[in-house]
Amino acid sequence: MDIASILGFLGAIGMVAYTMISGGGIEPFIDPAWTTVFGGTLFAVLYSHPIGAWGAGHGAMLKVFMPPIKKNEELIERMVELAAIARKDGMMALEGQEVPDKFFSKGMQMLVDGADEAKLVSQLNQEIKAMKLRHEANQGVVKGWIDIGPAMGMIGTLIGLVQMLQNLDDPSTIGPSMAVALLTTFYGAVMANMFFIPVAEKMKIRSSEESKTMQLIIEGIDSIVRGENVMITKEKLEAFLSPLERAGGKKDGE
Questions:
Q1: pTM attached to this predicted model
Q2: 248: pLDDT confidence band, cut at 50, 70 and 90?
């Protein structure tokens, strides 16, 4: 599990819950009106996306809490080893070699199959473009929750105000109706700002990291195709690492 995502999520909930409890308890903030916000947003997002994209987007949200992708240092180390093998024994010696990444494996197979440099790089870059399009579609589902959630909260507020105005002659209904009006806005704000906006930001970061790793792999495979010196290949690939990563430390933000 991704510790930063879990701690951040639980911490944000904890801070809000603490404020509620210290002010008199959580019970006043629990109302069936949450169905207007959550359920209404759920179906509105479904309405605005194809069913496949809707399902894939929600599945991608869960990956925010999973560990980050493999370390680039390990990929570089393996690439340097394979570059040395190819330089010593030829490209066919790379067949059957284990690699720690599916994209890496695909590139290596194309290399062994004799794909020329231009075709190999073009095909792998096309894979990156397709990945980015998938990620954008998933992020679009999250953006739907961010945009529609607070709006559904405002709809709930209007419902509460209408109910209150219709029953001004009964003072006992004013308080509950006003509470509904305020709570739905609260639900929409909490849902968007405490969950979906952070999730969207983390998804963008993960997409950028994955794209960077794939670009690194393309650069390494291209160097192997060119038969470049192993040390030159290593230095070229290490340009993708931060100074801390090159020194053998942890990734930025870990």
A1: 0.82
A2: low
Cα separation, 106 vs 101, whole angstroms: 9
Q: Which two tokens stand for residue 182?
A: 């305020």
Neighbours of 240 (CB within 10 A): 19
Break the chain into its structural domains and give their ranges: 1-30, 32-246
| Cα separation values, 108 from 87, 99, 129, 149, Å | 14, 9, 19, 45
Contact 145, 196 (CB under 8 A): yes
Query: What whole-number distance in Å separates Cα of residue 39 and Cα of residue 190?
Result: 15
For the chain, what is the mean pLDDT?
A: 87
Backbone angles phi and psi of 237, in degrees to 5: -75, -35
Contact 177, 157 (CB under 8 A): no
